[in-house]
Amino acid sequence: MSVVEAPVAADRRTPARTGPSVKALLRFWPDVRPFKWHFIGSITFSVLATLTGLVIPLVTQHIIDGPIAHGDFGGIWLPAALVLLLGLIDAAGVWARRIIIARPSSELEVNLRAKLFRKLQAISVGEHDGWDSGQLLSRAIQDMSTIRRFTAFAMPFMIINSVTVVAGLTVLTVLHWEFGLVVFLASIPLFLICVQFENKYKVVSRRAQDQTGDVATTVEESVQGIRVLKAFGRSAHLGMTFIRQSRQVRTSELLKVRYDAVLWSSVIGIPAIAIGLILGIGTWSIARGDLTPGTLVAAITMATFLRWPVESFGFLLAEANNAATAADRYWEIIDTPVSITDRPGAQPLEEPIRGRLSFNRMSFAFPDADRDQLHDVTLSIEPGETVALVGATGSGKTALTNLVPRLYDVTAGAICIDGTDIRDIPVEQLRSLVTVAFEEPVLFSASVRENVALGQPDATLAEIREALDIAQASGFVDELPWGLDTRIGEQGLSLSGGQRQRLALARAVLGKPRIMVLDDPLSALDVNTEEKVQAELRRVLPDSTTLLVAHRPSTASLADRVALLDEGTIVATGTHEHLLETSARYRYVMGSIDV
Question: pTM of the entire structure?
Fold first, then answer.
């Protein structure tokens, strides 16, 4: 596909936004609802376990002011046993929380990834052009892992630690009102610092995650295009691009660290100052006789115990911001409208389906384009007829072939099968009637059998063999180490261009489709092999309607008719020989003469 024929839309990221919002996280509630009791249970066990830690300082107070103060060392055993019991309850609560939450959080991650994958399969090709592949990859993997960590750890502990801090502050106030006042006053600057952190961190968090997607895109392209990069000596150039993008990610990550450092120094330093004040006030109160030593020890122990819940808010806020950013990026895809859908009242075509394909004054423009790529295209292809579509680069050939299986939708006029607008045919049935083979074949990291049977997973071995025979691919497939079961590797790069094209063609003809749209799928074949493939297609698929993009005379000459596409419209039709005699433009496109 040429750049002229398929303009790529701008990246749909939104780095200029002010940052993620809690609303994006709240939208996950329908997905979380099936596991709500698991989350509630895990939080409940954690709260109970954590609150046992608040009881231990009170037991310590009782020991110091009771048995120790009165010299009754025998009275220590029962409180000591209570402390041991509380420790066991704490450990059991932590164990129960992890056991309860591990599976649901993992299932939630899998469900969200599946939902994202289904959405990516549902949206149109035009919408896919709006994102870099690396951005989609980072959303499907990194962002979903961030959501899982938030639901399994950060979110529960934000609730647990909040309850713990409130309960601890209440206990401190009951022990001595001045202690509670100190902690309350210390919480004010902490709150203000956290608000400032949240406002700054969410912006740089979004920027860092988008930049990570850019790096993933560069890595993916460098791996897939390694042959081109090496052949043109551009590996070092792309390497510099990778380093530049990596440095941008590093800069953003270091800025996150700077914000984190300010927050952590505050949440660690301010509680330490508060503990120092409690120690001073408590010592003074003991000297005045207003406080017992046990109460002071209990207060210091309580304040020390509360340091972790307070300090962890820095980490939890960072995780919450990362999760909110990931949620925003997730919903950007999920909220993308699906433009290729069944029309209301769409009905399957009734048998028998003849397969007459017609373009009725059809026009098409890419989204946001300032002019039509195709306009007023009128062409009819009868059942069993092969029509070659010929035109100069940029004339709209590939765009036209993409319209038949509704990878895009026409903007005016109609494409019909047996007189029915394809938009009135259910998409699932349409794509079972129409098979496509592209000039650049796409193969997957799977066996030859799985690649050929991609559209017909229930195909028998005999049917797969017949498709390979039609595509003249049986010979080289049998020579592969494990024949049909040989894994051909990512993008099929272990095969030659002609071998990849023949496997893609075999995939297209498997199941004997009613309509075939072939975008110059034999360009890498020699003329003799191409003629054999055409002969097999006519013999085995005599009733299949075929629209064939042709770039060389040998391909056009094998078609029943040729349609000349020029500047987005059909300007001439006829046999190859007839057009050579009557159309100077056709002769120019075919390279016969210069005009």
Answer: 0.69
